[in-house]
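[09:14] KT: can someone run the structure on this one? pasting the chain below
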Amino acid sequence: MSQEKEKLIAELVNKGLDGDMDSVNACEDRVTRSKVKAMIMKIKKGSLDRPQMPVSLSDTPNESDDTGKTDDKTTEDISQKIKNMLLDNFPDETDETGQDGHMYVRPDKWLDIATWLKSESSLLFDSLQCQMGIDVGEDILESRYNLHSMVHDHYLEVRIRVARSNAKIPSVEQVWRIADWFERETYDMLGIEYVGHRDLRRILLPDDWEGWPLRKDYKEQETYHGIVVPKMKEGWD
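[09:31] RB: done, structure tokens below
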């Protein structure tokens, strides 16, 4: 068994023993998942000693005050390391202008970048925690992705900007399945087309609703199938 696999098993066993079985069940490798659950059972029965929690990227020694507050510099260093890796591997597709842990990526190669972010052993961004969109003005829409590695416990926010006149971004719902729902909501509210999504349709509004409600220039339609659309939301306070 490789050292990396042993570390993964030890980490998942410790998380499971501490009550975080969601992390264990999220492991995509069926064999690894089975080994982890078997070890947890043996440890609980007393027939096996609990393994030591392995040191990960997020466990880099750092200075902390008397209240246990983590030094922000560690997070900044990890974020910068990830940004540098992105720039090295996709120099023409990334832009290091982002601050506070986020990175701007051009849309054309986003699917390739997303696949790499999930599979690269030193990154392993296996969890898409959130994806949302925003109209930033000046004819620009932005799609944001909050990524987390359950193995390394580090984070990254990826942002992609597109023109409203050509609001197309490759879908990543086949990389992170939860993106299925996230991308549909962003499409519904902002009209960003996630190219390659296998079921891209509205999720909150009717399929034949006109316009994209979260765009700054959105004007609510007067009627819907002959029913007047109310403008005042009385009693909602």
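[09:33] KT: thanks! The chain has six helices and nine strands.
[09:34] RB: yep, looked fine to me
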